[in-house]
């Protein structure tokens, strides 16, 4: 039962794989058929009316008749190359049109002579010596060389390498009739190849920049290296003996299998998989060809390329097809579909070229693998563009979601801040009410109680009047402290100065007001009304003690700002010339009203975070109030 249960989940998975793989394979089969038909239909048509097929071939000291197109044996020497001799008919009536000789395809290089005079030598064109480009050649025949009637034409075919030499049908006739076929072949097999190679070089630069900017994504660097190798193959012609740099052939031949292996690595990394360790074996053929080419002679690298390089290219294309098919089954996205279709086209063209190399497809030597490689470049570019566009869409979507979430969070924070601000405002209002009630209770409440007590004991009106004035003074103090002074304590001290002057005038006591520093006291934005009340009551207590107990005749108030180690701080000093009072351990002796007043002064100073210093002797009393640099938010500072 357990085995049946284990096999049960695999069946739907297999069905899913089959349901995705079968349509994909059918699509690839249709692409193969379309590619074959395209190769047949897109072949340029040559002017058959001017074709010369019958030639006499002299090779290896023997002569025999042949029919073009024709394959010769492979050779590794340019001495005594195969020589094709034929004839064509020319009429003097056609002399005005101008005649040309046109060669659609040939191996390596050719030399064409008309009536013993050379009119075309493709060795002067480096690109014409490349079998992968199918480069056509055309040359005008000087009118002085043409004879009325039969004319001789010879084609010397320079064959080099393990592949058999090939010469296609030769065309001789009016230039106006041959030139369109030549231009069509040049467009298909030369111009397009150069355009695609130039585009490949631009794409390599872009990919290299992307890799430099995003080092954590090696897929761009791998593809950039593959593109560079393709550009090297496209623009650097291989040396043909006799050449000054025969070792260069090893580099060019090794680049093809290396490039195909890099394309496989790109596919694996592009679809998000890890490159296996044994995958490095795919680079071994290219490395072997390169090393052998640097050590051995020129023929050996070409043989190794035919034995190792070409099969490696086919294996790499097959592996790339398997990778894309797996990606299609798993991902079902446009990039894997596009790249898979392009790989199928290139693989079909590679099979076509192999059939031509091994002469399974006779009378044909057109290599289209390099040209079809551009289709894969288009697909890869489309895949990267699609991936980039998808990444941008994801970034835009994420950015939109992030903006929405940030706005929602901002709204929630605003609401939370509003609630917290309302709570803080309510708490501050409650604290202010509590302090105001306490101040009224301690000040005005005590005064009212005194008035009631005096009235009940039948005291004189003057005493009750003094108590009522004290209560009114205390009420004004509380009301004045509620004014918004913007953190400037000097405004509150100015109002207190007026009240103190009015208080001292009936006692003939002079008030000396001194501001020692230009700014007076520092600004305190955190200053609250209850801070002002505590400070003013300390000053009131100091003046009251000087009037009632010290019998002073002069009172000096000094205001200044001093510089401390942590910044400036304010100091208010009240000095009188009274008789002073006795102190023991920093407190007054006894339990008199003066002692209670001094304790209240210290308590009020501590609640404000200030420091109160008292000094008294026979010369008078000195009260020094050192204000804090920052006033506390809570009056619990006093402990």
What do you see in this structure?
- With 639 residues, the chain is of the alpha+beta class.
- The protein has helices at 2-7, 10-41, 175-213, 218-235, 248-270, 284-295, 299-331, 334-357, 369-456, 461-481, 489-504, 529-548, 593-607; strands spanning 51-52, 54-59, 62-67, 70-72, 83-90, 99-103, 109-114, 117-121, 137-141, 149-158, 165-167, 170-174, 510-515, 554-564, 567-576, 583-584, 587-588, 611-617, 620-626.
- The protein folds into four domains: 1-42; 49-185, Jelly Rolls (Sandwich); 191-399; 485-639, Histidine kinase-like ATPase, C-terminal domain (Heat Shock Protein 90, 2-Layer Sandwich).
- Strands 3-2-5-10-7-8 form a six-stranded antiparallel β-sheet, with no helix packed on it. It has a five-stranded mixed β-sheet with strand order 13-14-15-19-18, with helices on one face.
- A hairpin with a 2-residue loop joins strand 2 and strand 3.
- Helix 3 (175-213) packs parallel to helix 9 and helix 10 (461-481) runs antiparallel to helix 11 (489-504).
- The radius of gyration is 53 Å and the shape is rod-shaped.
- The two termini are 79 Å apart.
- Mean pLDDT is 81; it is low at 584-591.
